[in-house]
Automatic annotation (TrEMBL):
It comes from the Eukaryota. InterPro entries: ARM-like, ARM-type_fold, CFA69, CFA69_ARM_dom. Keywords: Cell projection, Cilium, Flagellum. This is Cilia and flagella associated protein 69. GO terms for biological process: olfactory behavior; positive regulation of flagellated sperm motility; response to odorant. GO terms for cellular component: non-motile cilium; sperm midpiece. It holds the Pfam family CFA69_ARM_rpt. It comes from Hypotaenidia okinawae. Residues 2-308 form the Cilia- and flagella-associated protein 69 ARM repeats domain.
């Protein structure tokens, strides 16, 4: 562990990977220390922490991480994974030790979470290192507000969501669990809501996409639009439907309860519940159809538990009439909820279809307007060519123009004032006169007159000129 130079060449197989350095000895020392700490002996762990084990382990971890940047080696990766495991065991459920870990430890953890997913299949041990880093994050950061706030400042939530979006299925459960625990910090939800992935994907869209993927693997029945197919058991997997009811002791959880921990749907529901099911950005109509199911996940799960309870009672007991009626009412609640959700999903799809039709009609109207404008331009050009090539057509156009002008004039006669004609006699052009006039020659009398002075700013007013004459006289 010390920084003293080491010139040994190793000792048999215990020195493998440590020729000319202490890596081999450090590797086996950490293995021994890992076995000691794994005993969960409070006195031993307290003694280690009192001797500064956390700070020393962080120093070694930083040294090994810097060495890995130069050349990645399986032994260095193993050393880092063991240190992260040791830190997880030492800091778990101890606030003071988490505070000792907080700032320096978070700075070391962030690069591990940013690891390139392609390295996970390299075979050197990057997958174990990443799992150890996530476990260390859960044990050493969560639960300590100082460490949590610093992790948020370093954009750690964004890094976790980036890792979640990288489609590493074996990490889904762990990452989602960490995010759920982080949501106890009120600052976390704003970070999750502001995250954007590839193609401007939002966190809500990512979670709903993972839900659909999970249900597809579980064999949950949905129709072609993603709506509920089985009203009685809307979220039951194909394996769950094949299982028969097995009477079990009261202290043993039923299959409906065990199923919660075996997939990621419960964690996705918890995250979306923390974010709020209303006003989630970046969702399509298909996402809203799935969101309606997620929103009632707890209701459907409670219905499954009651269904198992009713099936167990029918095997060995016969409820009294009042209890049987109550069980019947309770068992109908999930089915009614499923019908309500299915109706809401149909309404969402109809609304989306109606919106698509409106957008399509708007697009067709724009296309029709463009074609109409082109036809008008073409017709105008043809009329222009007709007037310029046919004198009779020109006279006809002139008569129509005069008739249109006459029709647009006011019918009320002016009582006082002169009336000026707007017609130009002997007009021989086929287009309207413009505002610009080109002068080809200027008469001499105009040049010698008032127009001879071009710079009016240098010309003095007559009053001033007359005043000067009086003073001189």
């Amino acid at each position: 562990i010390s920084q003293d130079p080491f010139f040994g060449q190793g000792n048999s197989f215990h020195g493998r990977g440590g020729r000319g350095n202490k890596l081999a000895q450090m590797r086996y020392s950490l293995r021994v220390l890992r076995s000691v700490v794994s005993l969960y002996d409070d006195a031993v762990n307290l003694n280690l922490c009192d001797q500064g084990a956390i700070s020393q382990l962080l120093d070694i971890l930083k040294y090994a991480a810097n060495k890995s940047k130069e050349k990645e080696d399986a032994i260095l990766l193993e050393i880092q994974a063991d240190i992260l495991f040791l830190l997880s065991l030492l800091c778990e459920n101890d606030l003071h030790r988490k505070e000792l870990f907080s700032y320096e430890g978070v700075d070391i953890l962030i690069p591990f979470i940013q690891m390139d997913p392609k390295k996970l299949s390299s075979g050197l041990g990057h997958n174990c290192l990443l799992l150890s880093a996530l476990d260390c994050l859960w044990s050493c950061v969560i639960g300590c507000y100082i460490a949590e706030d610093y992790f948020l400042e370093k954009q750690g939530i964004f890094r976790l969501l980036d890792l979640l979006a990288s489609k590493q299925k074996n990490l889904y459960n762990l990452i989602l669990g960490i995010l759920v625990e982080f949501c106890d910090n009120p600052k976390t939800t704003s970070h999750i809501s502001s995250w954007r992935g590839e193609q401007d994907q939002t966190a809500a869209n990512l979670l709903i996409e993972l839900w659909r993927q999970e249900e597809l693997e579980l064999g949950v029945k949905r129709d072609r639009y993603g709506r509920i197919f089985d009203m009685k058991r809307p979220i039951a997997s194909s394996f769950q439907k094949q299982q028969e009811v097995i009477p079990m002791p009261a202290n043993c959880p039923s299959f409906a309860i065990v199923e919660i921990s075996e997939n990621i749907r419960a964690k996705i529901y918890s995250l979306l519940f923390k974010l709020g099911f209303e006003n989630l950005p970046g969702l399509s109509a298909k996402d809203f159809v799935t969101l309606a199911i997620i929103r009632h996940y707890i209701d459907f799960k409670v219905g499954e538990v009651w269904s198992e309870l009713c099936a167990e009672l029918k095997e060995e007991f016969r409820p009294v009439e009042s209890d049987e009626e109550a069980l019947k009412v309770i068992s109908e609640i999930p089915e009614n909820t499923g019908r309500i959700v299915a109706a809401l999903q149909t309404e969402v799809l109809e609304s989306q279809r109606h919106q698509e039709i409106q957008e399509e009609e708007k697009l067709y109207a724009e296309i029709q307007a463009v074609h109409k404008q082109r036809e008008m331009v073409k017709k105008s050009w043809e009329n222009f060519l007709t007037r310029t090539s046919n004198y009779e057509a020109l006279k006809k156009a002139k008569r129509l123009q005069e008739k249109s002008i006459e029709a647009s004039r006011s019918k009320l006669k002016t009582q006082n004032g002169a009336v000026h004609s707007t017609d130009i006699k002997g007009l021989g052009t086929t287009i309207g006169s413009g505002r610009l006039v080109t002068v080809t020659s200027t008469p001499p009398q105009l040049i010698e007159g008032t127009l001879a002075v071009t710079d009016l700013a240098l010309r003095k007013p007559p009053a001033c000129k007359g005043a000067l004459k009086k003073i001189r006289s």
